[in-house]
Amino acid sequence: MSLFNTNSSQQFGSSSSDEYEHKRLRVAILGSSGSIGTQTLDVCLQHRDKIDVVALSVYNSCDALVKAARTCDAQHVVVVDETHKNDAILDNLPATCSCEFGSQALLDIVQRDDIDLVVCAIVGAAGMEVGYHALKCGKTLAYANKESLVVAGDLIMPLVKPGKLIPVDSEHSAIFQCLQGESLRELSDIWLTCSGGPFYAKTRDELGSVTAADALRHPTWKMGSKITIDSATLMNKGLEVLEATRLFELPIDDIHVVIHRQSMIHSMVQFKDGTTKAQLGPSDMRIPIQYALSYPNRWDTPSTKLPDWRTISHLSFAAPDTTTFGCLKLALQAGKTGGTMPCIMNAANEVANKAFREGRCSFLDIERIVAQTMQNCELAPVESLEQLREVDTQARTCAQTYLS
């Protein structure tokens, strides 16, 4: 497999390609009501001449779905939670817009002939099958669902063809951009930057009393609640390391997390000759989102926060504290163990993360619950999506027993 498209002139909406000269990129945004989904829609609306938003999905946010569908004239929408079939608000969808319900309808959307690119902004392991089927049927996949690659990378990555999987996470987009025109064989290390989250430099004693409201105050990024809590525990950075091993074919020990509080360097790659390349820019997710849509071209920036580099006097770097923030260490352990352990770890984290947001466990309990679940669930080689669904269910059940 390879993420990289050797034909740098090929892309939807590019006048350099006769095939798509008069055709807009037809996009499906899955998870359209979340942070990544709404920012993707914003980018698409800024480039109506290049992009046609054909389909949208939400889990149960029907109000947001109707508003988005009317804004972009979507032709198809999916509500995954079937208990919302009779929501009156859905009557306000555009007259020409079809509306389907359930998980199978989501898979049907990604396989439609009138979809060129799928933006998967679904949170958690739920995006696993979407990514698998999108790649299997030849769609371009703009992936903002790191959990899927962590859980099912053994099954998903063999399906990737050049130019068909574009990472959306700011760090992986940065690495992807730094590697354009380079050979993975000459890559020696990846420096994965991390803001440190809202609790940087706190002690474990101090973390014992923090609340979900405290954890949701991220210093630089505006994100969904699940990923914001993961950023506070540093679990998100652990997941990103595991994602990077899948995407860029580098061992975990050669991917280094570095605390960079200013969040202006989004990641760096180091080559065998000692050269390091970095991608810098504002903390605006619309930039990596847009690059996933425009790749391999670049469009006018969607951001209004471009930095004046003459005024920036200080960029700092530090090692992460994996003793205080043990979730990062647990994620790396799961990745090195391999097999179904990343699935077990991720499932336990999703349970504990949600419980903390709902006030049912403490911040430090997240680490404890993940560790206990990893210790007490049976490990096996990855064989199929069906097996991973079963492992995910079993790990969630196990994690629930450790909630205090």
UniProtKB/TrEMBL annotation:
Gene3D superfamilies: 1.10.1740.10, NAD(P)-binding Rossmann-like Domain
Binding sites annotated in the UniProt record for NADPH: 34-36, 145, 147, 224
Gene Ontology BP, a term: isopentenyl diphosphate biosynthetic process, methylerythritol 4-phosphate pathway involved in terpenoid biosynthetic process
Stretches assigned to the DXP reductoisomerase C-terminal domain: 280-397
GO molecular function: 1-deoxy-D-xylulose-5-phosphate reductoisomerase activity; isomerase activity; manganese ion binding; NADPH binding
Signal peptide limits: none
One Pfam family here: DXPR_C
Superkingdom of the source species: Bacteria
Positions annotated to bind 1-deoxy-D-xylulose 5-phosphate: 146, 170-171, 195, 218, 231, 236-237, 240
Keyword list, A-Z: Isomerase, Isoprene biosynthesis, Magnesium, Manganese, Metal-binding, NADP, Oxidoreductase
Pathways involved: Isoprenoid biosynthesis; isopentenyl diphosphate biosynthesis via DXP pathway; isopentenyl diphosphate from 1-deoxy-D-xylulose 5-phosphate: step 1/6
Cofactor field: Mg(2+); Mn(2+)
The EC number(s) this enzyme carries: 1.1.1.267
Span of domain 1-deoxy-D-xylulose 5-phosphate reductoisomerase C-terminal: 165-248
HAMAP family referenced in this protein's UniProt entry, alphabetically: DXP_reductoisom
PANTHER family in the cross-refs: 1-DEOXY-D-XYLULOSE 5-PHOSPHATE REDUCTOISOMERASE, 1-DEOXY-D-XYLULOSE 5-PHOSPHATE REDUCTOISOMERASE, CHLOROPLASTIC
Record's function text: Catalyzes the NADPH-dependent rearrangement and reduction of 1-deoxy-D-xylulose-5-phosphate (DXP) to 2-C-methyl-D-erythritol 4-phosphate (MEP).
Name recorded for this polypeptide: 1-deoxy-D-xylulose 5-phosphate reductoisomerase
